[in-house]
Automatic annotation (TrEMBL):
The keyword Cell wall biogenesis/degradation does not apply. It comes from the Eukaryota. InterPro entries: Clathrin_H-chain/VPS_repeat, TPR-like_helical_dom_sf, Vps41/Vps8, Znf_RING. Pfam families: TPR_Vps41. One of its GO terms (biological process) is protein targeting to vacuole. This is Vacuolar protein sorting-associated protein 41 homolog. The keyword Repeat does not apply. Keywords: Metal-binding, Protein transport, Transport, Zinc, Zinc-finger. It comes from Geodia barretti. GO terms for cellular component: HOPS complex; late endosome. CHCR repeats lie at residues 1-57. One of its GO terms (molecular function) is zinc ion binding. Residues 136-178 form the RING-type domain.
Length: 198
């Protein structure tokens, strides 16, 4: 029933079935983790908050998945919770691990962003050599060396086009060859993911 309700797009009913019929908070937490829905975590807290045993299970297992204060603030006053001290210590430890991971990821992202910006700056400042053999990627004719005077467009990717071969209506002036190649890559990844999920 839990599986069917989840597949039918009713995960809250499936979660309620786990809590009220199976009375298994660990399976409820596992189900919420698999679904990855914030509203489902809120429903889990709401359904479990009146059961001290379930509250202990939540305190022991959800520190890295939700904001702990969301759970603690909803616990009714004067509620006796088994092993509350040990559960709070574990909750804080799990939350601190999550904070440390986020800080580490932030530092890595900042460093990578700086390195990539420097690389982009160097690439944009580098020269691109064009000679008489350079051909237009649209029509296949030589860009320079013809009798008639013609403008040409050079993209940062290194591809060159005649001015007349570039779509003037395209204000972004994207490289046609790179655009087609990128679209094909995205389409290939999408098809791979669809086949993987079937």
């Amino acid at each position: 029933m839990v599986f069917l309700l989840a597949r039918m797009g009713n995960p809250k009913a499936a979660l309620e079935l786990v809590i009220k019929k199976l009375e298994d908070v660990d399976k409820a937490i596992e189900f919420a983790m698999e679904e990855g829905d914030d509203d489902l975590w809120d429903a889990l807290i709401h359904l479990s908050i009146s059961n001290p045993k379930f509250v202990t299970g939540l305190l022991n297992n959800v520190g890295t998945h939700i904001d702990p204060t969301k759970l603690i603030q909803q616990i009714p006053e004067h509620t006796e919770i088994p092993n509350l001290g040990a559960s709070l210590v574990k909750l804080l430890q799990d939350f601190q691990v999550q904070v440390n991971l986020r800080e580490g990821c932030r530092k890595i992202l900042v460093k990578d962003s700086h390195s990539l910006m420097e690389k982009l700056y160097k690439l944009q400042g580098s020269a691109v050599y064009i000679d008489g053999d350079t051909i237009c990627k649209a029509c296949g004719n030589e860009v320079i060396g013809t009798a008639e005077k013609a403008d040409f467009v050079l993209f940062f990717c290194g591809h060159v086009y005649h001015g007349r071969c570039v779509n003037k209506k395209n204000q972004r002036m994207t490289c046609r060859m790179c655009y087609v190649h990128t679209r094909a890559e995205h389409r290939g990844r999408k098809e791979h993911l669809l086949q993987k999920n079937l």
